[in-house]
Design goal:
- With about 450 residues, the chain is an alpha+beta fold.
- It has 2 domains: about 15-130, Nucleic acid-binding proteins (OB fold (Dihydrolipoamide Acetyltransferase, E2P)), CATH 2.40.50; about 155-445, 2-Layer Sandwich (BirA Bifunctional Protein, domain 2).
- The protein contains 14 helices and 16 strands.
- It has helices at about 15-20, 80-85, 85-95, 145-150, 155, 160-180, 220-230, 265-290, 290-295, 310-320, 335-340, 395-400, 410-415, 430-440; strands at about 45-60, 65-70, 75-80, 100-110, 115-130, 185, 195, 205-210, 210-215, 235-240, 255-265, 305-310, 345-350, 375-380, 380-390, 425-430.
- A hairpin with a 2-residue loop joins strand 8 (about 205-210) and strand 9.
- The model is unreliable at about 1-10 (pLDDT under 50).
- The chain binds 4-amino-1,4-dioxobutan-2-aminium adenosine-5'-monophosphate (4AD) and magnesium ion.
- 4-amino-1,4-dioxobutan-2-aminium adenosine-5'-monophosphate binds next to strand 11, strand 15, strand 16 and helix 14.
Amino acid sequence: MRFGLCGLMHITSGRRRRSLDSKLDKLDDWRRTHYSSDLSPQLDGKESVVFGWIASIRHQGNITFIILADKDGFMQITVKRDEVGEEFYEKVQRLGAHTSIGVKGVLRAISKAPNGVEMLPKEIKILSFATLNPPTSLYGRRLPSVDKRLEIRAVDLRRPAAQAVFKIRQEALKALRAHLIENGYHEVHTPKIISSATEGGAALFPLLYYNKEAFLTQSPQLYKEQLVMAFEKVFEIGPAFRAEQSRTLTHLSEFISVDVEEAYVDYRDSMNRLESMIREVVKEVSERCVNELKTLGYCLEMPQEFKRYSYDEVLDILSGLGYKLDWGEDLGSTHLSVLAEVNPSFYFIVDWPAQTKPFYIAPKDKYSKLSESFDLMFGSLEIASGGTRVSSRRLLEKRLKEKGLNPKSFTYHLKVFDYGMPPHSGFGLGFERLLMILTGQSNIRDVTYFPRDQRHLTP
Ligand code: 4AD
Ligand code: MG
């Protein structure tokens, strides 16, 4: 379905705006009886009250067709001049796209309209005029750039494709939470204002906390580890902040991190949990969001298994294809693109060199240079990182020093380890990155309501 912006008024002076305001109706005791999704031919002959914004309005002889949008979809209001009378018909002629209205009328089954039903109106309330044209045609065939669309995000989110993406976001969130709670995990909230880095100092946002320096959290890592002492199985779905230096399609300065941590397990159990959690989310989304996936023209094929390649195997694969990497180096974007050709779907890279991983990741054994760690990938995109954690205070202090960090800054964390920290393991998953995969979007900003990056601190 395509919509024009016909009839929309242009920039309005204060006087004109006041005069338009005086033409507005009050909501009074009108209340909605149906959303568009409630409508069906079975309601033929029923009285109804609907609300929404005008997606398009088309005048054809003495009939005006209004396509009204609400949060669930579209409905057709058919205004016939000889049935509604002159005053009503005149009122309708002033309406333009995005204007917010309420309509009372009778429903009539008709095969051509959305949901197989149209409304023949008896009364109409104009609740808010759209006095400006959005800077870009939101409903045109060509999608304006993300930057343009973000200028007026609240309106951009009315696009059917955006509505589909964010409904999938809602279902995915529900499925993640339900899966974890059903499997005995306890939902926690950890501080977002913290005193020291966990994932590398460069990407920290500093702030003034009363008279002290503090930071926005990069991950709930240390707090979720502490919480396994009391709750054993915990998860958090919350914001994480990273002062990312480069602008890419997959990085935000503020993202939602899905963090899971569990006592008395190791990284193999965490990978199993992560895989079953993702399978569950994909299943729920594909069952519950059939229409949204259709709107997006997207279908995600799931692999039989999430293959597990060790870091050493990855090096062999890359070297077989002519890409050399020194042992211990992290994979760069070229290597990741090559791996995506070998495996374009979900797979794990496990047993990374300890030097590539943060201080809290456990080495494989005392003298090993490898760590009990993993990244979950989808093609070239990293979705999650995790591993078995160091649970000995002595080793954690050593690892901090090796990473050039000062153990004194972590006293609040280290001292907990003196009280019997159990072995534990977990992972952190980038929720927006998972959503890119669930919705087939190539820019992370398109799955984020109000993305934050180097260029966007507003809207
Ligand atoms: O790989 P990261 O940095 O790992 C951690 O934060 C660990 N504390 C996790 C753990 O439990 N061991 O971040 C986890 C995930 C990444 O795999 C990625 O999906 C996502 O968070 N992520 C980002 N998403 C969007 N924008 C960014 N700037 C991101 N940085 C990380
Ligand atoms: Mg990572």
